């Protein structure tokens, strides 16, 4: 596959991720008003607990399957063996953790039991998910097409079925069932990419140690992402603080997919280069990936910070004023996550150094846990936000230290200069605009457009080669369409 395929797959992924961003943007204000902060808090807390069982059901099979398929993507028989070995292991692990989840909720018998029961569907979805196989083949169009359809169906279900705070269970069910059906639908494509494999060739548990090794960084990341929500629930009364925190993090992570979607595309590509021992190609690709992370991560951070006071009031409505400050705090993680996605997911995992990735993330988990213990009892959701920002920065820096002998960090950091200058100019403009514009959708739209315009104009003035080269490429393709 040539370089054009990377750009095409990224466009596929971004197109879908834009849908991922747009659909919650359309539903979040509605859901926030209908379910309220308390209902959102319940949903956030329960799904955070169920997420641990989903993570363990998955183990490291997604990363393992994607990576192993990327190594043999041109050999239909070998990739078929990888597919069935991975799937059998995945089904077995899912069955085991579904049983454990059932025991857990039957013993605990928590409030909102119906919400916990519905989460069985989400855990079952793990066994049906084969997106890792298509990612390993770099066939992102298949995943994007199907997921887009079911995203739109979910959007329609939310607006037609969810009417008041009593519909929390229905909202949870709609979200879960759409996830399951979306995963099952991908099976229609599998016969085209697989061939028959004899039972003697299958040994699904022979790489258990490898899968568990790949699982460790996954569980570390996921624990880190959900730990703060659970600790907020433990240290605060009610679910309101969790509702505030969930909304701020949701917006940040929705925006982040514009950057992190590149990781999904680059993992199989770096995996192929590593398998072919093409170190120079890996190095060139990594420098481009870091430049891309700065290019999008910095303006996203400045944009979220500057637009929070204008955006949140009309988007979520009365009662969510605390989200303004939370969004400003967590906006910093856009840059940190952008960088550690490049280092950890795009580089360390496909080059079989997941143990380094695990150590750095576990270090971040420890920092996050300790800061949560100190800050949440006093500052509630603000404390969790600060702890998350510090932990993400620690993870990003520690990963860069780990690869300092393989990649020139001076090149990595110097590549951020023009984006930092342009981003600061954008920030100044947006803060001035926010000081006198009313908080409504038209003002926010104006701020986004004007901020983006200033950012790109500054990159032209500074003659940033990365931006100019890709802008010319896009323009030429658009022109060719109309010839």
Written overview of the protein:
The protein is an all-alpha fold and 483 residues long. The chain has helices at residues 3-58, 61-71, 76-108, 113-128, 131-136, 140-161, 168-185, 208-235, 240-275, 279-316, 322-330, 333-348, 354-379, 381-402, 409-414, 417-436, 441-461, 465-481. Helix content is 83%, strand content 0%. Helix 2 (61-71) runs antiparallel to helix 3 (76-108), helix 9 runs antiparallel to helix 10 and helix 10 packs parallel to helix 16. The protein is globular.
Outline type: globular
How many E-type strands? 0
Helix content: over 70%
Describe the largest sheet. none
Summarize the structure.
The protein has 483 residues and is mainly alpha-helical.
Write the layout of secondary structure elements.
Blueprint: H1 3-58, H2 61-71, H3 76-108, H4 113-128, H5 131-136, H6 140-161, H7 168-185, H8 208-235, H9 240-275, H10 279-316, H11 322-330, H12 333-348, H13 354-379, H14 381-402, H15 409-414, H16 417-436, H17 441-461, H18 465-481
Helix pairs in contact: 1-3, 1-4, 1-6, 1-8, 1-9, 2-3, 2-9, 3-4, 4-7, 6-7, 8-13, 8-14, 9-10, 9-11, 9-12, 9-14, 10-11, 10-12, 10-16, 10-17, 11-14, 12-14, 13-14, 16-17
